[in-house]
Amino acid sequence: MSDLASALLDALDDDALDALAEQLAPRLGDRLAGAPEGDACYLAPEAAAGYLGVTRKRIYDLTSMRAIEPDGRDGRTPLYTRATLDAYAKGRPT
Hints:
- By secondary structure, the protein is mostly helical.
- It is elongated and about 45 Å long.
- Strands 1-3-2 form a three-stranded antiparallel sheet.
- It has helices spanning about 5-10, 15-35, 45-50, 55-65, 80-90; strands at about 40-45, 70-75, 75-80.
């Protein structure tokens, strides 16, 4: 998440967050309805980068440094599950 988005969320009180959640719920519901549950979905480097909020190059760098290991491959393209990316994010210093 960007610094701007983090600052915006920090500035909102509970009522404002509830109102934002109400506005976003229909969009998120539509988006999540077609997504596989849990780790059934593999993310390519571009999607993994978006999920972690880093660049695609950073995903390749982390893979090269063995900070994250691909869960599979599509030809030469490394694929990652959300569980792998979540585990990295939880262990990463902020």
